[in-house]
Amino acid sequence: MCRALAAAALLAAAAVAAAVVAGQPDAAAARGGLEAEVATARAAAAAAPDSFEAQLALAGALHRADHAAPNGGKRVPDAAAAYRRAAALAPGGPASPAAAYVLSNLGALLLSGGRVGEAGEVMNATLALAESLGMQRSDVYVGTLFNLAKAEQQRGEQERSQALLLQVVESARGVAGASFLKAWAGLKSFSPEQLAEMEEIQRYLRRARQGPVDEAALSRGERHAWQALQARWGWLGALSPADQSWFNFALWAAYQQAGRHEEAWQALAEGNALQDAAAPFDPAQDTGNVAAIVRMFQPPKPSSADPGDAFYAALMRGEAGFRDPPGLRPIFVVGMPRSGSTLVEQILASHSQVWGAGEDTALAPLLPDLLAVLHAPSGQVEASNIAAVGARYIADMRGRVPSDRPEARWVVDKMLRNMWHIGFIAMMLADPCILHATRHPADAGLSCFAQPFEGRGTPWANNLTHIAQQLELVQRLADHWDAALPGRVMHVRYEDLIRDQEGTTRAMLAHCGIPWEPSVLSFHTTQRTVATASLAQVRQRLYSSSMLRWRRYARQLAPLLRPLRSAILRYEREAGLESSAALLAEVLDTGAAANAGGSAANAAPAAAAGGGPQQEQAQQQAGREEL
C-alpha cells in the first residue's frame, strides 16, 4: 500500500525529533570529523597502496570511527583489511615488532566487532610473533594477552580467561599499567595475599593522586614507607584517573568476597568519582530528548475525522511498515543496562529459529533517513518510502545471521537505547516484537554503579543521581509507549524470570509468535559469544541472589533511592515483591542516609588528568558474576 497525505503535525514533530536522533551538536560534529578523517585516510591509502603509514592511518581512522559512532560493524571489514595490508608492509617485514603492533590492533578491532573466533586466531598469532621477538615485556604483548582473556571470557571459557588475566597481572608489572589494573578488575576471586597487595597498591595510588609528597615534612618512618611504595608502584602514578579507577572496581569485588562491605563501598564510590570527574555528564540532553519523543508520538485519535490523524494512526499500527516476504521478523530487546536484557537475549537465542545479533544495531544509522522521509520538503509523506527504510533494516539484520543458520526466522537486536526509538520502529516495520527488560530500580541502579562500563553509551553510570534520572527517563518512556502503542511492548521483569522461568519464557515467546521449544529453558548451555557485562550470569542456571541486593547498601544509596522512592514502591507492588517502604523511611526520613551527594566524589580525592595506554584494547566489560 502506498499513500501520500499532508501530515503537517507529524512533519513538525519529526523536525523536533531530529534532535533526538542527531544527539548533541558537539557529538554530531565529532562524528562528522571522524568521517572526514576516514575520507582523507581512504584517499591517501588509495594514492599510496604500498605505504605502511598510509594503510595504518586508514585502519586507525576506521577503527576510531567504529568505536565512536557504531554503524552495525560496516567499517570493520575495511579496517581489518587495512590492518592486514599494513602488517604485510611493516618496516622490517611481516615478522617485525611493527607488524606485531599492527596485528595487536587488528585483534582488538575484531574482538570489539564481535568476530571473536577470528580475533582469537589473530591474537594467538600476535603473541607467538611477539614471543619470537622477545617482546614479552611490551605493551603489545600484554595488551594482546589482556584482549585474549576477554575473547575467552566471551566464548564462555571462564577458567582459561581467569588464567590469562593472572598472567596479565604478572606480565604487565612495570610495563603496562592500564592493562595491569584492568586485569585485576576482571578477576572473580582473590586470595588473602592478593588482597594485601591490592591494598598496598591502593595506598600508593590514593597518595599519589593528592600531588607531590613533601618528604621533608614526613617522619623517618613515614618517609621510608612512602619511598618503599614509590619504588614498587611509582610506575602506576602517571596513569590517568580513569585508568586508575578500574582498580577500585577490583577492590570492590575483593572486599565483598571478604565480607568487608564498608570498605567495598568506599572503593566503589571512589572509582566512580574518578570516572565521573574524567568525563562529566550533563543529563539535560536526555531529558529534552524524552520530552521531544513524547511530543512526537502522541497516542492516536481513533475517532478523529482529520485525514492526517488517520494516517498517523495507520503509521503507528505499522500499516506502512515493511514486512519481510521470506519471513525474518525482528525482536527488539530494550531498556536499562543491568536489567536482564542479556538473559532475555540468551533465552531467545537458545531457540532453534532465533538468532541473537547482539548490541551493534543496524537501526541507528537509518533513523536520519527515516526522518528525512517524514519531513519531506513537499509536505507529503510517502508510505512506500517508510517501508523502504524498514526493508533496509531487515536486509542488514539478515546479513548478521550466519549462513549455516538458514532456519532462523527471528533475529534479536539488543541495542538497549532503541527504547527511545520504539515509535520509529512501529512506523517502519509491520510486525516488530518489542521486549522491555526491566528490574527493581534500586537493584538496576546499584548494578550500573558497580559495573566499570567503558567506552560508549553509559556516561551517566558513575553518578547515583544521574543513574536515578536515567531510570526515571526510561520508565517515563515505558509508560508513554504503553499509552501510544498499547499492547505492543511486553515488559519482562527480571524477578519474574527468576521466580517463574518457564511461565515468563512462554509468555515472551508467545508475544513474539515463536513456537515453544524446551531448549530455551536450558539457555545456560547454549554455545554463543556474549560481549556484555552479564556474560557470567547467562553461562549458569538462574539464581535469586541478585534480587534485592541493594538493601545491604541502602544507606549509601540514598542519592539514588530518594528520587526513585515512589518508583521503587510502585515496582514492588506491580511485581509482587516485599515492600521496602519501612526501609526507605528508615534510610531517607531519619537522617541515617550517608551524606554522599549525587556522585561518589566525597569518598575520593580530586582526580587529575593523565595519559592513557598506547596500544588499542577491545572495549569490553570486566563482567563478573555480581549484582
TrEMBL record:
Region (Disordered): 596-627
Gene3D superfamilies the UniProt entry points to: P-loop containing nucleotide triphosphate hydrolases (3.40.50.300), Tetratricopeptide repeat domain (1.25.40.10)
GO cellular component, one term: Golgi apparatus
Any one GO MF annotation of this record: protein-tyrosine sulfotransferase activity
Positions of transmembrane segments: none
EC supergroup of this enzyme: transferase
Keywords: Signal, Transferase
Span of the signal peptide: 1-23
Catalytic activity: L-tyrosyl-[protein] + 3'-phosphoadenylyl sulfate = O-sulfo-L-tyrosine-[protein] + adenosine 3',5'-bisphosphate + H(+)
Pfam families registered for this protein in UniProt: Sulfotransfer_3 (PF13469)
Enzyme nomenclature, EC number: 2.8.2.20
Similarity annotation: Belongs to the protein sulfotransferase family.
Protein name stated in the entry: protein-tyrosine sulfotransferase
